[in-house]
Structures are given as structure tokens and as C-alpha cells.
């Protein structure tokens, strides 16, 4: 009898140990959440690839986070070394373009109003909000699949998130409805105990520091585009829409090109050289941030504004949805469209 009792006790202990060692979807999510909530700050390095049809754009990404919702996201384009910064502090949200000595300021709920594949908090929030979240195990990694929330791109529907045994997010891949990967983020390193100087998240300090570090390549790029000689056209047009007029206006420096599109879905596209301001310029604006192509764009219900390869683009229409405006903006190319 004693032998039987001892055997039962041993089996019970083994069962308990086995059960305790098995992570469930809930326990992994809870531990990830706890890890973020307990940190006073983190800093991570990542590489991000944005895929647009046959083109792809690669960024070096550095994310700095400090408790009480201070964020600093550096996005450096690998092809031209052009850097933009998304900064969030107590004063608001900014998009900084140091090479132009210019920043846009807006009151926004970023980063919580849209999926952000390079931010731990956003990726985790998408996972927690999906009632149909799935988790599988591959080697020592946990593989999650969840829905995403890209307001200006409904074709992006879900993401695959790879979490390692130390509960670090290692990779995020965002897919469209056809299962094509559109965004790929690989996290190279993360410091969950990062500390920052008092002025690290201050606007003026960031503009001054990055401007001082601005390299010759960036300055030469801006100088070369100071004279815009030819229009740059969108390759995608809504059905029944066509280029009606093209007008060039001389400016003190360079020229401005105004393209007017008529038809069922009319819109206007304004292009001009993106010139550096003599003094730091802060432009209050409305709308949300959207990352596409090689730039951070500002998108609202009727317009899209962004800088690409030294040219500033402003696309406006009262007859198009913000998603369709973004689709047109993403298609802008040097190849002409038929009039």
C-alpha cells in the first residue's frame, strides 16, 4: 500500500512540474505585458523593410521609450541615409526632418491609434485585442498570429510575431489579404533598463543634435533637388480620373509644379523642392502619421503631405478617402501618365 501511495505522489509531482513548465497563450502575453509595464525605459535597434509592389525600402530603426509615454523613433533610410524622427513628449507629437530644419507638430493619440510594427507596446496591444489570437511553438520560439489596425491601408490584415524564450519580440511580419508580406521588422537588440538624459525627448535638443550630425551626403542631396525641372507623376489613378493641367510657378528658389487631375475623382498634386529653413520651423498640423515608401507622411481626411528624395509633395482632394489618397501618393513615380 505504501509503495502504491508513493508511486501516486511521484506521478502527481511529475504532472505538476510538467504543467508548470508549459507556457500558454495567456501566460506568455501576461509576462510580455508585465515586462513592458515594469520597465522605466527601453531602447531597441531594428531593421525594417517596407514592400510596395516590386519596390522595397529598408530602414535602420532606433526606438527609445521612457515611462509616462515619452517616445523617440529614429527612421534612417538605408539607401540615402535620410533620417526622420517621430518624437512624443508632454507637449505633443512631432515629425522631425532635421535636414530641412523643420518639424510638424500635432495633437495625436499616436502610437495607440494605429498599428506600429516597430513598437513593442503597439505589437502587444494588437495581440491582446485579437480574440482569435493563435500561438504555436517552433523550437524555443513562440509564434503568434493576430489582426492589425492600419487605418489608411485596409489591405494589411494580420501579423506574425516571433517571441523568443526570454520573452523578447524578435520579428514582426505584416501581411495583406493575399498573404503577401508588406512590412518586415527584425529586432536586433533591446535594453529593457535604458536610461536617458533629461533633455533626450525635448524637441529643440533633438533638432540641434541631429542637425549637427548631418552628413555631407544629405546636404548634397538637398542641394541637387533645389531646382525641380520636371513633374513627378502618380502611376495609379482612380477610375475615370485623368491629368487635366500641368502648371509651373517660379519661386524665389526653384519652382513649384501644380498638377490638376479631373474626372470622376478629381484631386490636385503640388510638388516643390524641399529646401532647408534658415531657422527651426515648427508647423502645427492635423491628421495622423503614416509610414510608407521612404518617408513619414502626414495624412488627414483630405490630404497627404510628405518629402521624398528632396521633393515635397502635397496631395489634396475632397472627393477621395484617406486610404485612396495614400494609394495615389504611394504610386508617385518619375514615369509620366497619359493626359
Automatic annotation (TrEMBL):
InterPro entries: LolA/LolB/LppX, Sporulation_related. Gene3D superfamilies: Lipoprotein localisation LolA/LolB/LppX. Keywords: Lipoprotein. It comes from the Bacteria. Transmembrane segments: none annotated. This is Outer membrane lipoprotein carrier protein LolA. It comes from Candidatus Aphodocola excrementigallinarum. The lineage of its organism: Bacteria, Bacillati, Bacillota, Bacilli, Candidatus Aphodocola.
Amino acid at each position: 500500500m505504501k509503495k502504491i501511495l508513493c508511486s501516486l505522489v511521484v506521478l502527481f509531482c511529475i504532472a505538476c512540474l510538467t504543467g508548470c513548465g508549459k507556457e500558454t497563450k495567456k501566460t506568455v502575453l501576461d509576462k510580455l505585458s508585465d515586462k513592458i509595464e515594469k520597465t522605466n525605459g527601453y531602447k531597441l535597434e531594428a531593421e525594417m523593410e517596407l514592400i510596395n509592389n516590386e519596390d522595397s525600402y529598408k530602414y535602420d530603426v532606433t526606438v527609445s521609450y521612457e515611462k509616462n509615454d515619452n517616445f523617440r523613433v529614429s527612421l534612417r533610410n538605408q539607401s540615402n541615409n535620410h533620417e526622420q524622427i517621430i518624437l512624443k513628449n508632454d507637449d505633443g507629437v512631432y515629425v522631425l526632418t532635421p535636414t530641412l530644419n523643420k518639424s510638424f507638430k500635432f495633437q495625436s493619440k499616436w502610437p495607440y491609434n494605429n498599428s506600429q510594427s516597430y513598437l513593442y507596446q503597439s505589437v502587444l496591444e494588437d495581440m491582446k485585442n485579437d480574440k482569435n489570437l493563435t500561438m504555436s511553438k517552433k523550437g524555443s520560439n513562440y509564434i503568434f498570429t493576430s489582426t492589425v489596425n492600419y487605418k489608411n491601408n485596409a489591405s494589411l490584415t494580420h501579423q506574425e510575431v516571433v517571441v523568443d524564450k526570454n520573452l523578447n519580440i524578435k520579428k514582426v511580419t505584416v501581411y495583406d489579404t493575399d498573404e503577401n508580406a508588406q512590412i518586415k521588422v527584425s529586432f536586433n537588440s533591446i535594453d529593457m533598463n535604458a536610461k536617458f538624459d533629461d533633455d533626450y525627448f525635448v524637441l529643440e535638443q533633438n533638432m540641434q543634435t541631429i542637425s549637427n550630425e548631418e552628413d555631407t551626403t544629405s546636404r548634397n542631396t538637398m542641394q541637387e533637388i533645389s531646382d525641380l525641372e520636371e513633374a513627378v507623376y502618380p502611376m495609379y489613378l482612380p477610375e475615370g480620373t485623368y491629368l487635366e493641367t500641368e502648371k509651373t510657378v517660379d519661386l524665389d528658389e526653384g519652382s513649384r509644379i501644380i498638377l490638376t487631375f479631373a474626372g470622376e475623382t478629381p484631386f490636385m498634386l503640388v510638388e516643390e523642392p524641399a529646401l532647408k529653413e534658415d531657422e527651426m520651423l515648427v508647423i502645427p498640423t492635423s491628421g495622423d502619421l503614416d509610414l510608407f515608401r521612404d518617408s513619414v507622411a502626414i495624412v488627414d481626411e483630405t490630404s497627404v503631405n510628405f518629402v521624398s528624395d528632396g521633393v515635397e509633395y502635397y496631395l489634396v482632394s475632397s472627393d477621395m478617402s484617406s486610404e485612396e489618397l495614400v494609394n495615389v501618393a504611394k504610386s508617385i513615380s518619375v514615369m509620366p501618365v497619359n493626359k
